[in-house]
Fold this sequence. Notes:
Blueprint: E1 2-3, E2 10-11, E3 15-22, E4 25-27, E5 30-42, E6 47-59
Antiparallel strand pairs: 1-2, 3-5, 4-5, 5-6
Protein name: Outer membrane protein beta-barrel domain-containing protein
Organism: candidate division TA06 bacterium DG_78
Amino acid sequence: MTRNLNTAKESGYVFTYGIGLVINFTVDRLRIYPKLCYDGITDFKEHAGFIGMKIGIAYDI
């Protein structure tokens, strides 16, 4: 991937990936499932990524 100064243009090939872990908690009909995740991008020379947590809530009727 290459980037030129004074432009918003990038060109090249990159590999994106994401991994995560979901844990389900259930109380009666309420489900809470936090997800720990890592989303990344690399060109196999440099890499960047995002570590985060997403929370899902569901109620079964």
